[in-house]
Every structure is written in C-alpha cells, then in structure tokens.
Design goal:
Jelly Rolls, 22 strands, eleven-stranded mixed sheet, globular
C-alpha cells in the first residue's frame, strides 16, 4: 500500500503553485509509474560547481558526425544490452540489401526523402516519418534527397503502448499507420537480371549472401507483421490545460526496458497561472534519458539546435534552465519536435568525442547567465 506522507512546506498539487522561494524536484521509481517523492528545495540541484567522474550530462552535435561511405553510413554512439542508438546518413540508393537479424529497427527521418524498399513492398518516406522495420526484414533505402536518420535498434520486439483509459484512438488512430503494397514485379530494379547482395547482421557481424535475382520479389503478403510508417504530423498529443503531464504521456513505441516518446507542438498549461509549463526537475533514478532535437524552438533550455542530442544518465538531476521557467510564464504553446528514448539499463557512449559538446554539464550554472 502506498501512503503519501506530507512534511514541511510543499505544494498541495504536484507541479502547481510551487511555494515561493522553492523549486520542486520529483524522485520517481520505474519512470513515472512507481513510488515517488516531491522534494521542495531552496536551490536548484543543477546549479553545481563541478562534476568529477565518468557519469555526467552530455550533449552531441550529430551534424558534425563524419561518415566513411566505404565502411558504413551508420554510426552507433549509445548502446546497452537492450538498444543501440545510431545516426545514419544515406546520400544515394544503397547498392546492397540489408537484413538485421539482431533486432527491430525504428528509423526516424530527420532530413530528406526517398523510398524504403522491403520484403513487404515500397514506401515513400519524408521528413518526420517513423519507419518501423521488424527483425529479419530485407530492405534498402533509396533516397531522392540526401537523408539522415536517427536509428533506434531494439533487441526485443517494438510495439505500441497500451492507451488504457484514453482509448485505442488516443495519440494517433491506428488507421494512420501505413504499410507497403508489393509492386507485383513491375519495378525495374526487381525485374533486372543481375547479382544482388544481401548483408545480414547477426551478433554484430555481417554475412553477405548473393542471389541471381532481386530478393524483393514478393507479389503479396498478409498477416499482422509488417514494415510500418507513421509521421509525426499524424500524432495528436495528449494535453492538460492545468497540469504538466509526465513524458510517459507522449509514448509512441515501447520495447523491453526502453520507450520512445515524441514531443510535439501543443498548447501549454494555460488554464492555471500557477501550473508549471516546463519539465519539472527530476532525478533519473531508474532510467537514462536521451532526447534528439529534430525541429523547432526548444524553449526549455538554451544552446540546443536541430540535429543535436542530449544524454542524461541515471543518478544525475535533470530539468529546465531557471530562465526558461521565467520565460515560460508568457508562453502559450510549445513549438518543438523531439524524440526521447528512456532506457532502464545504463547506456554506454561510443566514439563520440568529435561530436560531443564540451562542458555541456555547465550549462545550468546560474552564474553563467543561464
């Protein structure tokens, strides 16, 4: 049985009418679904003087990532036993087909447009699309414009979250999900007679299989498993006019030990002038938090632009800039699109020194004007 205790100076309603001279910090277990505590402090827990040791907030500018086409167009920079997070750039149609036997893939289209060809048929993709590719699917990317992708590789099956009492049409109507239709052999790529290469990734290693015909030769399919496409414009975020909802309210995909959320333009909490409008301070106790900034104005903090990503590990506080809280008083809506990945198990950082934004952890220090 959970018994809420109330001691000292507190707000009666979480995230609303925070006592003057205090800031509210949420300590929550199991993301935002377990036991919790709201602690009311007189100083921001983020206004540190220094951090020593391996675990600290980090930020990366993915626009500076260098790719070597002869080896790979995909660079993995965060991973654990459940998920690998990469950034990919594809400037011309792949000259081979790809099958990931290690996990499902979620490709978020950050820039560009083109065509995803797969066992199930082709889909035209555009900026802001989520492309969900089940484990073992043969596919290739054929961009018409140079394309960049945030890639989330899941070593368990990717599913949609349970909408619970909100109903099955909340966030997005399942009818908005698009799946491919085979082209019945009319595609010139499929009908061309030559040798085709399929690269199979398994346990992090690659095997090349060659065929005298195009491996994407399906004329039909049926079932409940398929490549799926969903654009951020098809997602209608859950709103509260008087209460700042936790990030979990914006969940788009779930898998074993991690979740993918989508933050979208939406009205802010304008129904109560004492309601918090920016993310509340919280301690990352059970989850690492990664946010990819896709598009718009990220008013909850400064110094972040499109194409950047932030990483906040477990055990380190996280929250908005103090001046962002002050600016939010007159804000009526947020105009940002971002993808958040929360992982239950700690992430490891790989080969990201060239793209890391140095001293990111200092960005909350009030003496620096933040």
């Amino acid at each position: 049985m959970s018994i809420p205790y109330v001691k000292g100076i507190v707000a009666k309603q979480a995230h609303v009418a925070i006592p003057d001279g205090t800031i509210e910090e949420e300590i929550g277990r199991n993301g935002f679904f377990g036991r919790y505590a709201h602690i009311y402090r007189t100083h921001s827990p983020l206004n540190w003087t220094r951090i020593e040791g391996p675990r600290k907030p980090q930020a990366f500018d993915l626009r500076k990532m260098k790719f070597h086409a002869e080896t790979s167009t995909r660079h993995t920079f965060l991973s654990n036993e459940d998920v690998a997070i990469s950034f990919a750039r594809v400037e011309k149609p792949m000259d081979y087909f790809y099958r990931n036997a290690d996990g499902d893939e979620v490709l978020f289209v950050h820039q560009g447009g083109g065509r995803l060809e797969s066992d199930y048929g082709p889909l035209n993709y555009n900026k802001g699309d989520y492309l969900v590719i089940p484990r073992g699917t043969v596919y290739r990317l054929a961009p018409t414009d140079a394309s960049s992708f945030l890639v989330v590789e899941s070593f368990s099956e990717v599913n949609f979250p349970d909408r619970g009492m909100l109903g099955q049409h909340a966030l997005f109507d399942p009818a908005m999900i698009r799946v491919p239709t085979p082209e019945f052999g009319n595609n010139s790529t499929i009908s061309e007679r030559r040798e085709y290469e399929v690269r199979v990734k398994h346990r992090g290693q690659f095997t090349k299989i060659f065929y005298p015909f195009c491996p994407l030769d399906a004329v039909g399919w049926k079932g409940t498993l398929s490549v799926m496409q969903l654009n951020v414009t098809d997602i209608r975020p859950v709103l509260s006019d008087r209460y700042h909802l936790p990030p979990s309210a914006h969940s788009t995909f779930v898998a074993n030990n991690f979740v993918i959320c989508t933050f979208l333009p939406r009205p802010l909490e304008n129904g109560d002038d004492k309601a918090l409008k920016v993310p509340f301070y919280h301690s990352n106790i059970d989850f690492d938090e990664v946010i990819f900034y896709h598009e718009g104005e990220f008013f909850s903090r400064s110094g972040i632009d499109e194409g950047m990503i932030t990483y906040h590990p477990q055990g380190i506080h996280h929250g908005p800039h103090r001046k962002a809280i002050e600016r939010s008083a007159d804000k009526k809506r947020t105009n940002e699109i971002a993808v958040m990945i929360d992982t239950k198990n700690p992430l490891n950082v790989h080969d990201a020194h060239e793209i890391e934004i140095r001293d990111y952890w200092k960005s909350w220090q009030e003496r620096e004007g933040n």
